[in-house]
Amino acid sequence: MQISPWLGLALLLVSALLSHGREPEFPEDLAHLPPSPGLPDLLTLNDGSRITNKATWPRRRSELIPPLLHYQYGHLPPRPDRITARVDRVREHRSGLGTEEWITLVIGSERNLEMRILAYVPKTPGPHPVIIEEKGSLGRSRSAPLFLENNYLFIEYARGDLAPDKRGHLGPAQKAYPGFDWAMLAVWAWGGMRVVDYLEERPDVDHDRIAITGHSRGGKAALLAGALDERIDLVVPCQSGAGGAGSSRILGPGAESIGMNDKPNWYHPRILLFAENEAHLPFDQHFLKALVAPRALLCLESSDDLFANPVGTRATSEAAMPVFQLHGRRHHNGLIFRRGGHSYSDEDWQTLLEFAEFVFFERPPPAGRSFWQSPAPLFPKERKKRESSFVTVGAPGNPPDEHRPRVGAHGAVGHTFEISKHQVSNAEYSEFLNAVARRADPHGLYNPRMRIRRLPSPSVTSGFQYAPDPETSHLAVTCLTWFDAIRYCNWLHGGDTERGAYEISPSSKVGPRHRDAKYFLPSENEWYKAAYYDPGKKNYARFHRNVGGLLSLSTSKLRSEKWHNSPWGMAGIDHPVWDWTESHAGTQFRCVRSNSWFQGNNRQAAGRFYSNPELELGNLGFRVARTLIESR
Description:
- The chain is of the alpha/beta class.
- It is built from 14 helices and 19 strands.
- The strands form four sheets. Strands 1-2-3-5-4-6-7-8-9 form a nine-stranded mixed sheet, with helices on both faces. A four-stranded antiparallel sheet has the order 10-11-19-14.
- Helix 2 (57-73) crosses helix 7, helix 6 (217-228) packs across helix 7 (286-292) and helix 7 runs parallel beside helix 8 (310-326).
- Mean pLDDT is 90; it is low at 1-10, 16-20 and 547-562.
C-alpha cells in the first residue's frame, strides 16, 4: 500500500506516542487524513516496516486500538478494582438440564453501578466452557437448552443496566465514569468484559474456553469486547454490520453506511467526520477482527441481510486472514452465510456450537461443513417477459421530498426526461457486447457470471459472440460495474464506449454528463422522482403510503402492478435488483436505488445507499434515461 507523506508523518507521530505510553493526538481535519480507498494493511507498522513473524505482532496490535477508540467508540474505563456477585435467586431450568442463577454484579467498590446477569448452569460436572450473550432483557433464552445439553455454561447480561438504548441519554455507567468519552457500544462491550471478571472467580468455569456473542447491535458490542479483552477465546458477532464486522469502505447495495446510521448514541460523534468520506478513515473493521487473532473469530451472516453488508463483511474477514495466518491459525477465522432475515436463528446457534466444539476441543465439523464461506449470489427473480420501452417524467421544477436527517431531500428535477420502464435486460446488454466486444474486451464489460453466454465467433478470428440464456433473456442484466453502465450509455448515445454522454479518461476517470447527452444514467434525483413523485397530487404520498416497499413483502393479491410501478409507469422498483445511478456519494462511491424491502424498522427508499463502483454483484443492475425524442 502506498502511504502519502501526510499520512506517513501522522502514523510516525502515533507510533512515537504509543511507544511512550501516551494517547496520540489524531487529526480532526480530513486534509490531514488523506484518502486510502483500499483496506489498510494490517501487517505494516505505522513507521512503514513489515511484520514478518508473530513475535512482533503485539507492537502492531497496540497501534490498531487507539484510532478505533478515538474516532468510533470512545475510550473505556479500566478494569474496576473488584466485582461482587449478589445471588438474587436460583431455580430449576424448565428443560431439566440445569439451573438458572439470577445474579446482580456490583461493579467496583466506590461506584454505585450494578448489572444483572442470568447464568444457565448445566447439571453435568465442570469445568464448563462458557457462552456469554449480550441481551436487552434476561430470561427465556431459546438457545440455552442447546448449550446446557452440551455441558456449556450460558450467560446473558443486561446491557441496558449500564446504558439504556436511548438517544441523548447518559446511562449509569457513563455517569459513574464521567472522565471517559465512551459511547454506548463501548459501554455494552465493557459490560461483557465485567462478566469475564466475574467468571474468573467461578471454579466451575473452563477459563481457556470463554466465548462472547450478540446479534446486530449486540454483535457490534461482542466484537469490540472480544477485540479488546484477550481473556475471551472465541468471538461470535451475528449480523453486526456497520460498526461491527462490515466494512465502512466496501459497501454492497443496501448496506448501512456511517452516514446512514440512525443510532448516533452508539458511536462517538467523531465518526461522523467520515460520513461519505469513508476513504479517509485511518482504519476499517478488519482492525477489530485482527485484534481477535490468534484467538478464534466466527462471523455469522445472512446473504439476504443487505443492511448488515454481507459483501463488506466478507472483505474484512479476508483482509484479517493474513494475521491469523501469521499465527498459524487460519482455521480460527470463520465466516458463515445462511439465507433469511435479520435474526439470531436456530441455525446460527447450531453453527456457533459446532464452531466452538471445533476450536475448543478439536472436534471435526459435520460432514460437508465449511467454516469459511462467501455470500450466496443474489440474482433477479423470474418475471413475465416484457418489451423495452420508456416512460416520460414531466412536471419540471417539482419540489423535493421531505428532508430527512443524514439523508437530505431528493426528487427535485428541473427538466422533463424519459426513463426506461424496465432495467436493461440480458438481451439488450448482449446487443451491446456484440457491438463493442466481439474482437476484444479490454474494459471487462463481460462477466462470466452474467446470464449471457460468450462463444467463439464464427466470423471473427479469435473473436466472440454473445447470446443471452433464452430463459432469462428478459431479466435484468447484473454482475456489472458502474463503469460498464456508463459505457453502455455512451454506446447508446453515439456508438463509442469512451465518449458521448460521458468522457472517460485512459485512467477510467469519468467526467460529468455532457449537456447534449442523449442517453445517460439517471441521477439520484431523477430516479427518485420517476419512482415516487405523483404529478397529479404533486407530492410523494405514494411512497409514504407504501412505506418504502412494505407491501412488497406480501404474496397475496395486494402485491400487484400498482405497488411496484411508479405513478409515471416505471416498473420493477420493488425488484430485488438495485439500480446504479449517476450520482456521487463522496469521492469513493456511487449511489444505488431500489424500493425493495430489507428490514422492518427502516424504509429503504428513505435512505441514501451507495456502493463501490467496481462491484459486480448479482443484485446490481441499471436502467437508462434519455432526453425527450422531440427535443433532440
